[in-house]
Amino acid sequence: MRNLVVMQSKELALKIENSSGRSRRNIWLNGAIGSAWIYVNASSLGWLGIAIEQTSTFNLILLSGVAIGLAGWLIWQQLQQKTSFMVAAQPVARSLPLILMFGSALSSIGLRWSIEIEAIEVICFAIGTYGLIGLWLPESTWRKGLSIAVLSSFILPFVLQFGVGLGFPVRVLTANIVEHLLEGWQIAAISSHDIIVLENGIAHIDLPCSGLKSLWTGTFFLLGATWIEGRKLNMRWMLICLVSLFLLIAANVSRVSLLVILTYVMHQPRLGEMLHLPLGVIGFMSACGLTWAMLQTVPKLGLVKSSPKSEIDRPISLAHQAILIFSILLLTLIPRPNLTAISPISPSTILAEAAKAQIQLQSIPMTSIESEFFADRKDTLAQKERFNFGNLSGSLLIVSSTSWRSHHAPELCFAGNGFKVDTMQQRFISSQPTRWLSLQSGQMSATYWFQSQHQTTDDFLDRFWSGITRQQSSWVMVSILFNQSKSPDDLEVRTLVSTIHTNIDRAINQAISHNSGANT
Hints:
- The chain is α+β, with helices and mostly antiparallel strands.
- It contains 19 helices and eleven strands.
- The longest helix has about 40 residues.
């Protein structure tokens, strides 16, 4: 009997030792998988770290509440099934979480080559992370939380830095669409950045009018309704999402167009103020109502037949876990775009060449608004000069940058500094497109353009699109303010613009050639 007891004790001790050894091994392997995923997404985590430092306490509390709410909802779903909340000790082989994880990672890398908007990369990282978590969670619980996880992923970058990098392009797009609509109605107008200059006034397209908040809230509504009603995220749902975005944009453009017509064409500013909020609410509610109606055509999630217990009994083998870690690390070998391929062109180089063409220059300080805008931007060099050239005199601002965020429409600065913008139009000076402005009731003139190695444009939307799609790596913005009223056909004006344009072109090509030689 004593021998039997001793043998059973040894067997029990051996089982405990083996179980402890497996637990330690599982902890190391799970940690290795998580560490590999974090290493691959280091850039997205870096952006999140910076964003968290800059965001407000209220937004951090809101974000924490969303995370706690998601975790609590997952636990509540498991308790509803009257089973303990089980998390697998080892990852379980499931196709959908793996597809979501690797698909999001590959999409993030692919988008990085074509689009320079960090928020999209963060969304891909968050969705991919939920796919990774799905290797340990019970399948039924994970599938039920998929909609709310996608919803939380879309919320994340906007809660941290709402509108940063996105507000400008949406305002520009809204202004351009309204401009073309007004032209179709035979109303003379020209847009740039977030204002529309008409024959008798300036219409500002501010952040509320841009439609960015309605796009974010409308998407939040669609994802929330999808989660509450338990709808599937399939191709039909994706089509409805695109239609919803179109409806929200159309509603906002219609509102802005009507307000511009009421205020500046029909001269009824008070009526425009009265209708501003009601038009926004009606347009948003109509778009959401149509979206909800279309959502009813999407089938609901069916019951998941596999049980959590059977899932945990089918863990990935050690060899497959090693392959999973290796596959995640392989993502780091996929080439990423070099975001610092070229430094911004020094304005001093451009101005030194301009001085050789008998253009007299004297450095002057930038205004407080300009200094604050360009401060602490490592990818931007700005310089302001007072110039004299023949009978011409005024100020010249040159801003060289590899980021579209450092550029803006100069008429905003003119208006901000107290100058009245009378008219704006596109004019070709020495065969180059420029934006020509009349200021102070025709007493002063100004011109500006954006220039890269292969393109010159007067439209900020072209500059923005080239920046986010990485078509051109370095751009220079030139803004010239004349102290007197001038014509774009004036010979001295054409000579001045042509000289500066040629010097910028030479400086950009020399910098790119130097950079190419250094790389080889």
